[in-house]
Amino acid sequence: MENFDVIQALARTALAGNPEAIEHQVTRLAERLAESGDDGSARKLRSLITRARNRQAVEPINLQPSDIATAPPTAQRLGPKTALPVDRESGAPLCEVLAPDRRRALPVLPVHAQAAYDSLVREWQHEAELAQVGLPISRTLLIYGPPGTGKTTLALAIAARLGRPAVIARLDGLISSLLGNTARNLGALFDFCNRYDCVLILDEFDAVAKIRDDANEVGEIKRVVNALLQNLDKRTEFGLTIAVTNHEKLLDSAVWRRFEHQIQLGMPTYEGRVEIGHLLLDRLEEVDPLAKTVASVTSGRSGADVRTLAMAFLKSTVLATQDIRSPVTVLREAAQATGIQGVDGLDSTDQELAKHLNEPPAALTQGELGVIFGRDRKTISRWLNPSEVKV
What we know:
By secondary structure, the chain is an alpha/beta fold. It has three domains: 4-58, no CATH class; 95-264, Rossmann fold (3-Layer(aba) Sandwich); 270-388, no CATH class. The chain is built from 17 helices and six strands. It has helices at 4-16, 19-35, 39-58, 111-125, 127-132, 151-162, 171-174, 181-195, 219-234, 253-256, 270-281, 287-297, 303-319, 327-338, 350-358, 366-373, 377-384; strands at residues 95-98, 140-144, 166-169, 199-202, 240-245, 261-264. Strands 1-3-4-5-2-6 form a six-stranded mixed β-sheet, with helices on both faces. Helix 9 (219-234) links the parallel strand 4 and strand 5 (240-245). The chain is elongated and about 95 Å long.
C-alpha cells in the first residue's frame, strides 16, 4: 500500500495520544500526497493542521505555583494535554511525564546519600534566601551505583518532594541510528524542559554521555556528548536535571563537572536491609524478627532483591488459606517463586539456619527463632546447643 509507512506511524502516534507527534506524521503524509500529484488531499490535510494549531493557541495554559522554590517567571506548568517532543523521523516520543505524587516513598538511603538529598531539598526550600546573597540553588544531580540500589526511585522521589512533574527521557526515542538525529533529539528534549517547571530525569545516562576518546566508539558519540554538554550548560537557569547511571566509569570527564551534587548508591548494609524489611512487613505481627531474617538471608543483595523477597513473603502470608506453615517455610517458597537464587542460608537445614540467625548481625533470640521456625523454645535450644542434649 502506497504511503503505508507514514500511515502506520500516524496510527502509532494517534494511539499514543501525542498531539505534536500526530501533527508531524500528518504533515509527512500531506507532503507525500503533494509529491504524488494529489494536491487537493494534501491541501485538506494542511487545513486540518492549521485549524488544530488555532485551537491550541486559544487554550489556556495551566499555570500553578510550585510547592518548593519559585519557578522562573516564564516557566509554564506541564499539564496532561501538553504536547511532548518527538523524533522527527519515527514519531517516537522523546520522554514521558509523571505527575508529582506525594505518596512516592523515598528509598532507604545510606547516611551520606541521605545527607546529600537533605542538602539539595534544603536549597530548593530556601531559594529566596540564597538569591538575596547572590547564591543560586543547585540544579544538577548525578546518581550512580549498581542496578537495584534505588537510583531511579530516588530521582522520582526528589521530583515528588519538590512538587514538580518528572520528565523522564526515553532512550528508545532519543537515540537514533541516523547521523545527527540523536544530538538533535537531545536539543529538542532540553528545549522542551527549559520551557516548563519540571525535573528532567536522564535514566541510563551513560548511553549519551560516554567517554569521547573511547577507541570503540565512532565519531557520532563525540557529537552527541558535545551536544549534551552544551544543553546541560544552557539548562543551568532552569529546573532540576537528574542523571542516573549504572556505569559511572563510562562517563566522559567533562560530564562529571556539570553536576553540582553527586550521590553514590551501593548495596544496602544489614541495617538498611532491616529497615526495608520493616517498611514492607510492618502490617504483620512479630515484624522485627521477620525483618531481621530477611535482612540476614539477603546479605550482599541489592535493595531491589530485598524488596522482591519481602513482598513475595508478604503476599504469600496474606493469601495463605491455612496457618500451618512456618515463616521460614513461606520465605523459602517466596525465594523460589521469585527466582532469587542462592539466598544466604535458606538452602540449609532449619538447624543450620537457626544457628546462622542466632549469630550477629541478626542475633535473634531463642524466642524470636521460635517465631520464625514455628517451634517451641526447647526445640530451638536443642538446635543451638546439641552438645547439652542428654542421652
